[in-house]
Amino acid sequence: MKKIISISEMAEYCQVTTETIRRWIDSGAIPSSRTLGGHRRIEFRDFVRFLEQNHMPIQDSIVGKKKAVLLVGFPLEKHNALTSDLAFPDFGITVDFADSAFEAGYKTGALQPQMVIFNPTSDDMNLHAACRTIRDTADTKLTKVAVVQNDLMSTLPQEVQKLGVTQIAKLNRDAIFNLIES
Prior knowledge:
Blueprint: E1 4-6, H1 7-14, H2 18-26, E2 33-34, E3 40-43, H3 44-53, H4 60-63, E4 67-72, H5 79-86, E5 93-98, H6 101-111, E6 115-118, H7 127-136, E7 144-148, H8 158-161, E8 166-168, H9 173-181
Parallel strand pairs: 4-5, 4-6, 6-7, 7-8
Antiparallel strand pairs: 1-3, 2-3
Helix pairs in contact: 1-2, 6-7
């Protein structure tokens, strides 16, 4: 998936002129940067966010295959809030939950999510075994894995770090999107 688009590509997609895109950028509606030659460029995620915020259709052809994020160990009472905060439904990213590392293993195999995020809730969550299973399974070995920093786990154990697991300080849309797209 392309990470940067030109204003002419955005204009073509939105069926407006490049001058309209420039006005949207100048008004602050769309963040952009400039090339060394002075041409404006828009990050793909800002383009999609703009489409979402303005209730414009997002075609499957621009976002590709639907993506899933699996959240593990988050309290049931927070599921709705997390789903509404983190889901990118128009962008094709769905959120699912697992209560335990065991359930995460099962759901990871079934969903083949692009990312699994663990919230260590107790010392008995076998994070290393769950991450090892994800890495050792052919269909999920490229799945991105992250752990939310909390009181139970302020730093990642060395054996988990060696599996390519990322630690995130705060769970939010930008953190997830950046990790999925990296």
